[in-house]
C-alpha cells in the first residue's frame, strides 16, 4: 500500500492533466467565442448600418460612411454593479449624442440584474438619443430621467452613472479623438 | 439492496437530493428563476455528478481514509472546471449568464454527499448510475421550480432558450401575461417555491 500522500499527488496529477489537456484543446475556440461576442455587441450598438467601423485604439473605434466620420464607439466599464465589472460599448455621433449602448460583459444576477443585456430586455435602449447636456443623468427615483428596472436599482444606477462617465470622457477627448482619426487616415 | 431499480427510485424520489436530502440548495435557489437557466445548470450538475461518481468509484480502492475527503473534493472541483471549459466552448452565450453559478457546483453538497456515501463504497456501474439518477432527481426539481417561478414571476415560459438551442430557440417563448408577480423571481420566491414543492412531495409519499 502506497502512502496516502503519494496517492493524493498522483490523483492531483491526473486531474491536472485532464484539465490542462481540455484547456489546450479548447482555448482557441473559447478566445474566438469571446471576441465574436464582443464584436457582435459592438456591431449591435449601431444597429442596421452600412457604416464602416475601424479600430483607433484598444477599446476605441470610429465609424464612417463614405469616408466621412460619423461618430465613435468606445468601451466603458464600471465596478458599481451588483457583482463585478459591467462593460459596455457606447456609440456616440459627432454632436456627442448617444446612438446606442450595449453591455458586452457582466455578471449581474440572472433573471434580475441581467436586464441590461439586450438578449434579455430592451431597457438599455432608453439611452438611445440621450446626451450629457439634454438629460438629467440619474435614476427617476433619484430625480433623474432614467427609469430603473424592477428589482435591480443598483445595476440600473451603475449603468446610468457609467454611461454618464463615458460621455464625459468622450467630451473631454473629442478633439484628441478626431485628430487621431486624421492621423489614422494619413497612415493608411 | 443495490439493484438498478432501488438506485433509480432513490435518486428520483425517495432520497431525492433536493426534496429529501435538502442538499445543493445554493445553486437550486439561485438558478431556478427561469426554465432556461435551470435547464442549463441542471444538465451541467447532472454531468459533473455522474462523472465524479464514476471517477471516485474507479479510485476507491486507492483512497486511504485520511485523504478521502480532500481527494473527492479535488475530483469534483476538476470535473466542474472541465464542465466550465466545455460550456464556454459550446454555449458561450449561456455561460455569460450562468457562468457564475457553474463554479458554485463545487459547493453543491449533493456531489460530495454521493461521493462519500455511495461512490466510494460501490462498484463503478452502480456508482455511475447513482450519480446519474441523483442528477436527474436534482434536474427534475430544478426544472419544476424554474417552470413555476418563471410562469408566475415573469409571465413567460421557455424565454431565452436561444442561449441553449441557438437560433431555433427564439420562437419557443410562451407569454401568458405582460408582467409577473416579481416576488417569485427574487430570492424569497425561491424559498417559497421549494417549500411548496417539498410539502407536495411529503403529501404524495405520505
Q: What would you note in describing this structure?
A:
The complex is a heterodimer of chains A (188) and B (206). Chain A has helices spanning 4-46, 153-187, and strands at 52-57, 60-65, 68-78, 86-93, 98-105. Chain A is α+β, with helices and mostly antiparallel strands and 188 residues long. Chain A has one domain (45-187). In chain A, strands 1-2-3-4-5 form a 5-stranded antiparallel beta sheet. In chain A, a hairpin with a 4-residue loop joins strand 4 and strand 5 (98-105). The model of chain A has no long low-confidence stretch (mean pLDDT 87). Chain B has a domain at 4-145. The mean pLDDT of chain B is 87. With 206 residues, chain B is mainly alpha-helical. Chain B is globular, with a radius of gyration of 17 Å. Chain B contains 9 helices and 2 strands. In chain B, strands 1-2 form a two-stranded antiparallel ribbon. Chain B has helices spanning 4-14, 25-31, 35-58, 68-90, 92-103, 109-117, 124-154, 162-165, 187-205, and strands at 156-157, 174-175. At the A-B interface, helix 1 of A face helix 4 and helix 5 of B.
List the helices and strands and how they pair.
The complex is a heterodimer of chains A (about 190) and B (about 210).
Chain A (H helix, E strand, L loop, with lengths): L3 H43 L5 E6 L2 E6 L2 E11 L7 E8 L4 E8 L47 H35 L1
Antiparallel strand pairs in A: 1-2, 2-3, 3-4, 4-5
Chain B lengths: L3 H11 L10 H7 L3 H24 L9 H23 L1 H12 L5 H9 L6 H31 L1 E2 L4 H4 L8 E2 L11 H19 L1
Helix pairs in contact in B: 1-7, 3-4, 3-5, 3-6, 3-7, 4-5, 4-6, 7-9
